Amino acid sequence: MNEQRQYITHVNLSGYKSIQNLECDFEDGLNIIIGDNGSGKSNFFEFLHFCFTGEVNRLYNFSAGVELNGKPGLIEWNNTLKVFEEGHELYGLPYTDVPNFPLRYEFVQFNMPHELSVLADELVINFDLNKSKIASGAIKPIAPLFATHFVRIVNRILRNTRSITDDLLLEQLNTAFNIDYATFKESVGAYTPVEDIRISNALRISKVSSDVVEIRNLLFEYKINGSWFSWNGLSDGTKRMIYLIGVLCGYNSADQSIAPKVVFIEEPEIGIHPHQLHLILNFLRERSKNQQIFISTHSPQVLDILNADELNKIIIAEITAKDGTKFRHLSEAEMNKAQLYFKDEGLLSEYWRFSDLQRTEKI
Question: Alpha helix locations (H) across the chain?
Fold first, then answer.
């Protein structure tokens, strides 16, 4: 399967919560799934997440099929994962024997995880100078994935010297960060209120024993309106934006050199000021040039990210007592009406609010 460009073109799913029989086509780049609360948007993301991670113990009497890259190949689940390409079965194995799933993806839920992909908390590292390596079990707390690179940097720096000052280590860490995470820093500066990021000046090295040194206060600081703040000093909306940028840049993965090909994002508008939402949506649009991005939302404002010729990227989530969750694209007639309104008014969100496109049945 194409490793350079991976995206989901079709799914058929059944057997999870409100998803009884859902089938839908998707576009490369952006896909915006809009619907009322309770229409099944999160169920859709969770269903695919459980399939992709092999957590089928959460599912019962289910079936699922996912087509990648618009090819005849299909990935099917039903207690066994089967992968096809060009109509030929590559493998069909129980989940316990499944090789690495052939799609690099991320699922960003509306609530941020406990262990963030940013250095939100102080990272404490003990280094054994005699053995020239990080002391076993001496990273406190367990490093979030974003911090593993800094552990490697510390390891490299201290392996080359038995004597290093706080200022020299701080300088070398900031230099490495500015080089290795340039895309992350640039994106945060362009799409959030944060003007700059640095390693805290509070970083300190102290001797634990003749052979072991301890590095404390390894964490980020964020510059806003000329002042530096810790993670806890940021607003919830700004934290969420920084986390989202980190995930899309690939820093929530063990292999931080490769960004995810497909990203599912739940309700990016939660906790974010409308102006900041506009910025983060612009970031998502830019990233969608190289990644497939699914956004679930109940906010019509999110639709304003689209141009008049991109209405095919809207998927309406609806639910009925009889059929459960269904996804549908706009009909040709609905697209024509929306384009006329778009031409006159310029805001798709306003058209959505006053249209009859949403037909969710209250159940």
Answer: 41-53, 148-159, 166-180, 182-191, 236-248, 274-287, 332-345, 348-354
Residue that the structure tokens 């002042």 belong to: 227
Give the whole-angstrom CA distance, residue 68 versus residue 71: 6
Helix (H, G, I), strand (E, B) or coil at 210: coil
Cis peptide before 268 (omega within 30 of 0): no
Q: Is 117 helix (H, G, I), strand (E, B) or coil?
A: coil
Cα 140 from Cα 125, distance rounded (Å): 7
**Residue from 167, 173, 160, 81 nearest 123 by CA:** 173
Higher-pLDDT residue of 103, 48: 48
Architecture of domain 8-104+262-354: 3-Layer(aba) Sandwich (3.40)
212's tokens: 């072991």
CA distance 304 to 260: 25
| Partners of 10 in beta bridges | 25, 67
Domain ranges of the chain: 8-104+262-354, 123-237
| Separation of alpha carbons 219 and 82, rounded Å | 43
Can you give the pTM of this predicted structure?
0.86
Task: Return the closest-CA partner of residue 142 out of 169, 180, 116.
Answer: 116
**Predicted local confidence at residue 127, as pLDDT:** 86
The model's pLDDT over 1-47, given as tens digits with 9 standing for 90+, comes to 445 678 999 999 998 999 999 999 999 999 999 999 899 999 999 99
The span from the CA of 13 to the CA of 16, in Å, is: 8
